[in-house]
Amino acid sequence: EPEVTQTPSHQVTQMGQEVILRCVPISNHLYFYWYRQILGQKVEFLVSFYNNEISEKSEIFDDQFSVERPDGSNFTLKIRSTKLEDSAMYFCASSEGYYYAGAWDEQFFGPGTRLTVL
Amino acid sequence: QKEVEQNSGPLSVPEGAIASLNCTYSDRGSQSFFWYRQYSGKSPELIMFIYSNGDKEDGRFTAQLNKASQYVSLLIRDSQPSDSATYLCAVNDSGGSNYKLTFGKGTLLTVNP
Predict the structure, then answer these.
(1) DSSP-based three-state secondary structure for A86
(2) Which of A42, A50, A91 sits opposite B43 (nearest CB)?
(3) Chain B partners of A107 at a C-beta cutoff of 8 Å?
(4) Residues in chain A with pLDDT < 70?
(5) Of A9, A76, B44, B80, which has the most beta carbons under 10 Å away?
(6) What is the pLDDT, as a whole number, of residue B95?
(7) DSSP state, B100?
């Protein structure tokens, strides 16, 4: 069964360093997303991406964050200068983008990257 | 601010019982509703989705939706210890931000053998 994959599974970095989190969405999916979950808190939307551009972003997704689809399979999240509060699980998700009568189809999540900022 | 509310639990049920998980949402225009299961330290795993008022059954799981009351529920019949996890309710926002899923904080379910 097709699945979303993410690398690395765990990333440790020093405050102020840049990190790139990588994702390979399900191959026939058109919409890609990043979410994060701080330990003990709810899953929070960061950004959605369609047709090679950002379609929606949250208040969390400030200028320190960027996304890119560098080739036909990878989808990346870059954090330019990490802060302690960026420590979280980062989940990539994808969906076909099927929309009917106001309802969107389901999003499938990857296993996540645990980011630890020291 | 669009909100999704769930009882955090823990909800404890004996093996073989019915577990009932509830969720309310604030965005009256939402049309897509999802239940995800999340084991500790793992990613959300889709269990069910529901778009129309009423019940939707899939094996041991039944999702119920009442848009007038802005209420979604998940019933798990014949609960198994392997069902022990946090159950996340997620709702697509309406309007221009309808790609976005807003999650509740989740209900921790424990099924006791």
Answers:
(1) helix
(2) A91
(3) 34, 46, 101
(4) 101-102
(5) B44
(6) 65
(7) P
- The strand pair at A113-117 and A10-13 is best described as parallel
Long-range contacts of B73-77 (CB under 8 A, 24+ apart): B73/B20, B73/B21, B73/B22, B73/B23, B74/B20, B74/B21, B74/B23, B74/B35, B74/B47, B74/B48, B75/B18, B75/B19, B75/B20, B75/B21, B76/B18, B76/B19, B76/B21, B76/B109, B77/B18
* Whether the predicted pLDDT of B39 surpasses 60: yes
∠ CA B12-B17-B23 to the nearest 5 degrees?
A: 60
Is A50:A116 a contact under the CB 8 Å cutoff? no
Q: Do A35 and B99 touch (CB under 8 A)?
A: no
Q: Which residues in A lie closer than 8 A to residue B2 (C-beta atoms)?
A: none
Nearest in space to B107 (alpha carbons), one of B62, B74, B70? B74
Q: A13 Cβ partners below 8 Å, 6+ apart?
A: A19, A82, A115, A116, A117, A118
Asked whether the predicted pLDDT for residue B55 surpasses 70, the reply is yes
Q: Where do runs of H (alpha helix) occur along chain B?
A: none
DSSP E strand boundaries for B6-113:
11-14, 19-25, 33-38, 45-50, 54-58, 61-66, 71-76, 85-92, 101-103, 107-112
Residues 13-72 (B) with a CB less than 8 A from some CB of A:
29, 31-32, 34, 36, 42-46, 49, 51
Predicted confidence at residue B8, as pLDDT, reads 83
Under 8 Å between Cβ of B56 and B112: no
Residue A13 bridge partners (DSSP): A117
